[in-house]
């Protein structure tokens, strides 16, 4: 399955079955986490068979049920933590989707995570992980001209923006804007709830499909 097809198939899922993630899939995800941490300097952790974090009032308020596995996006405090967490978190989300697993980005509607957070570190976000009761539904999207300049788009840029529009963002806010000038792609954060994490997510989508770096 091509990366764009994986993006098209992946939707947020909040209700999970009581089904154990197989050892082979756990090992593959842990290997990818190790690679992401080495590349990014983050301290991403996967918590398997950990029922307490989502067995809370906040999780129920967020309509989560059956969550016993999650990814904790942890890293050193700094201006770039949230964007890096979004970028590498989405890399893991799409890898999980390719394995037949489901996910959901979770900002605040969870209890205390079991992640180890070292001195000077912060937990930026969590990602619920497992076998969903369903495959979720597509999210609402803005018009393309609201998030980029649509005039004279090269084919590769149009493909990248197709991938960007499939990316999850907090409250489906899509508070970003992409520009292409002199062959250089930039993405601006327009502010909003968890928008720095969102920026990392959409940058990963664009780069994964086009191979073009986003500044």
Describe this structure as you would to a colleague:
- This protein is α+β, with helices and mostly antiparallel strands and about 220 residues long.
- The chain has six helices and six strands, in the order ααβαβαββαββα.
- It has helices at about 5-10, 25-40, 55-60, 80-100, 155-165, 195-210; strands at about 45, 70-75, 100-105, 120-130, 175-180, 185-190.
- Strands 1-2-4-3 form a four-stranded antiparallel sheet. Strands 5-6 form a two-stranded antiparallel sheet.
- β5 (about 175-180) and β6 form a beta hairpin.
- α2 (about 25-40) packs antiparallel against α4.
- The two termini are about 30 Å apart.
How do the strands and helices of this protein lay out in sequence?
Blueprint: H1 3-9, H2 23-40, E1 45-47, H3 57-61, E2 69-76, H4 81-98, E3 102-106, E4 121-130, H5 155-165, E5 176-181, E6 184-189, H6 195-210
Antiparallel strand pairs: 1-2, 2-4, 3-4, 5-6
Brief digest:
This protein has helices at about 5-10, 25-40, 55-60, 80-100, 155-165, 195-210; strands at about 45, 70-75, 100-105, 120-130, 175-180, 185-190.
Structural features:
215 residues, alpha+beta, globular
Helical percent range? 25-40%
Q: Which secondary-structure class do the elements indicate?
A: alpha+beta
Strand order of the largest sheet: 1-2-4-3
The ordered string of helix (H) and strand (E) elements is: HHEHEHEEHEEH
